[in-house]
Structures are given as C-alpha cells and as structure tokens.
Design goal:
- The chain is an alpha+beta fold and about 130 residues long.
- The protein has one domain (about 5-125): Gcn5-related N-acetyltransferase (GNAT) (Aminopeptidase, 3-Layer(aba) Sandwich), CATH 3.40.630.
- The protein contains 3 helices and 6 strands.
- Strands 1-2-3-4-6-5 form a 6-stranded mixed β-sheet, covered by helices on one side.
- It is globular and about 40 Å long.
- It starts with 5 loop residues before the first strand and ends with a helix.
Length: about 130
C-alpha cells in the first residue's frame, strides 16, 4: 500500500475495524492539488457519528497535506451520505443520469461533490 497516494484512517471499536475513511491523492499531473475522499462505515455502527468524525479528520489531513480541493463520488440514492458531506461544505459539481451500474447492472445517477479547502487568506494572496 502506498500511504502517500492512499491514506486510510480507521475507526476502531472494541478492537474491530468498523469504519474507514481514505484520502486518495495523485502525486503528479493536473489533479495533484485535488484529493478524493471515500468513507465506509459498517451498517451496525452507522448513526453514531463515526463517519462524521472520520470525514473531519481526513479533511484536516488533506489540508495539512497542502491539497486545495477534495472531491467525493456517490450514486444519487446515497442521499444521507451526500447530506453529511454537504454539512462539511461539499457542493454538487456534476450529476450524470444513468451513468454508473451497480453489481446487478442497474443504472444509477453519478454524483460528484467537491469542497474547496483554500482559506480566504490564500485567495487574497493569489489575487495579488
């Protein structure tokens, strides 16, 4: 595993991994300033704030790594997850109808959400 490209953050309860948030990064190329966040929590442990804690921590790591933006992808039916990411400031950037298929070949809308991590001070200095 390349921790520089895919950094997992584990949620552990009673010595069992019950959740994971991963920060995916490209170390070069035209998307090197953009990270991708993915989060998964075991169904028995949802609704306890674990996903919220993992997202908060992974966003802090992304800022510390110097990333300027982060993105997350969903299918449209993942409304609760998209709402949680929206609480952190993520906005819907793209929605493509019937773009992806699940394991049973049923199509779903693809949703890309993004968050700008740059601070007001960074915007002011970039403006000159």
């Amino acid at each position: 595993m390349d921790i520089g490209r895919n950094l997992p953050l584990l949620g552990v309860i009673d010595k069992k991994i019950v959740g994971v948030a991963t920060l995916h990064q490209r170390l070069g190329g035209w998307k090197r300033h953009i990270g991708r966040v993915s989060v998964l929590v075991h169904p028995k442990f949802r609704g306890r704030g674990l996903a919220t804690t993992l997202i908060k921590e992974i966003l802090d790591i992304a800022r510390g790594a110097g990333l300027e933006r982060v993105e997350a992808t969903f299918i449209a039916e993942q409304e609760a997850a998209m709402k949680m990411f929206a609480m952190f400031g993520f906005n819907e950037l793209v929605r493509l109808e019937d773009y992806v298929k699940d394991m049973t070949a049923i199509t779903h809308d693809y949703v890309l959400m993004g968050l700008d991590l740059r601070t007001d001070e960074e915007y002011a200095s970039a403006a000159g």
